[in-house]
């Protein structure tokens, strides 16, 4: 599937994914790549974007010489997702809440996870800013590590530019960015050769307008930089 983009203001219309089943993995990835293209990435129009595998997308500037491969992945915690689903579907009236700090280090899944969470009911859901930031950094580091390994595997096509695009599956709207960055650089993953750009899309709360903002960060060994932000 390939699209030609002529105008940044018309990206949503020019990338028409209405024919893709919402349950299909490609649908989610197209939704995320459309969000990415709402940010100033230094690209020149017109350009083609094509869905493929390993990497997930190819960008080609028609008037220039840039060819970019984009590999997409999620920063996610399987236990958090399963516990949210369990809370949504359970018929147990005593099961009232889930706090993400109850799930750090938890390996159980399915019904066993439900029993573990049930046993936590009544515990304080309070989670400090550093603990939240450390948990989020852990998710991002796992995503980077997995995709660095994928980059070196047979069958992964490399381009003159190779970008890693990480979407935040379950954002913390009040993430402490200083703590997040301190934890993120400890393992020096961003210093390893591989992707020319690492982009992290998440959401934060914007108080004045009372909206959640999508924000895009570029992660590098030199620091954490904000690319752009806009209302959801």
Describe this structure in words.
The protein has an eight-stranded mixed sheet. It is globular and about 60 Å long. By secondary structure, the protein is α+β, with helices and mostly antiparallel strands. About 30% of the residues lie in helices and about 25% in strands. A hairpin with a 4-residue loop joins strand 6 and strand 7. The longest helix has 23 residues, at about 130-150. It folds into two domains: about 1-75 and about 130-230, no CATH class; about 80-120, no CATH class. Helix 3 (about 80-90) crosses helix 4 and helix 5 (about 130-150) crosses helix 6 (about 175-185).
Stretches with pLDDT under 50, minimum 5 residues: none
Total number of helices: 6
Number of self-contained structural domains: 2
Kindly estimate the percentage of residues that lie in beta strands according to DSSP.
Answer: 25-35%
State the helical fraction.
Answer: 25-40%
H/E topology pattern: EHHEEEHHHEHEEE
The number of strands is 8
Radius of gyration: 19 Å
Distance between the ends? 26 Å
The pLDDT mean sits at 82
Structural class: alpha+beta
Main β-sheet, in a few words?
8 strands, mixed
Largest sheet strand order: 1-2-3-4-5-6-7-8
Shape: globular
Question: Which descriptors would you attach to this protein?
Answer:
232 residues, alpha+beta, 2 domains, 6 helices, 8 strands, 26% strand
